[in-house]
Amino acid sequence: MFRSRSKEEQSAKVADAKVTADEPQQPRHPEAPKGRPTPKRSQASAQRRSLASTPANRKEAAKRQREARRADMAKQREALANGDERFLPVRDKGPVRRFVRDFVDSRFTVMEFFLPLAVVILVMSMINQGKFQQFVLLAWMVVILVIVLNSVVIAVTLKKALKKKLPGEPTKGAIPYALMRSLQMRRLRLPKPKVKRGAKP
Question: Do 182 and 147 touch, CB atoms closer than 8 A?
Fold first, then answer.
């Protein structure tokens, strides 16, 4: 008796479910509650902008990345020319690197003429004469010795200046950065020099 009643109830539920599935869904009444709060206008516009800015496929995403890289590189080139710290490469950012640049640019160094001297000596070495070759070798030795002494002087004086001017600041990599800048000719240095020779950094 109980089994037959339970079977009838189950069959009735199945029939009701079929009827409900077969019935077309009625459209929601305009005044009926939506079941969620209406988003603010600013939120809706922000959502539309995010959907519009989302790339449609992988090709579009790669194109946008390339354009973003080009824009960043253009900003970096402009910053290297005018010294805008906001867009400088990481290696040139910070008060320590700025002080190192000013320290090097305010001094006259023999190192900045290394490349022109090297080219001249290389051309002279092509002259195939015994005594002249000895002179060329001596010139090479003198240039290298002067550059080594100049590098030592810059390293020692820069360490003292950094401790005095920027105590507590991390100075890792400051000396190699200064030596590399010293080897470049003044007008070819990037970022561009901002102090004159003889000025205080």
Answer: no
**Per residue in 27-52, pLDDT tens?**
554 444 555 566 566 666 666 665 55
- Give the C-alpha separation, 107 to 186, whole Å: 10
**Spatial contact of 193 and 100, defined as CB atoms under 8 Å apart:** no
Buried/exposed 27-43: b ≥16 CB within 10 Å, e otherwise: eeeeeeeeeeeeeeeee
A 10 A CB-CB count for 112 gives: 20
pLDDT in tens, 100-123: 999 999 999 989 999 999 999 888
Crossing angle of helices 130-165/174-182, nearest 10°? 140
Residue 73 token pair: 């590189």
- pTM of the model as a whole: 0.65
**Length of the chain counted residue by residue:** 201
Residue 176 vs residues 49, 80, 129, 155, 180: alpha-carbon distances, Å: 46, 19, 39, 9, 6
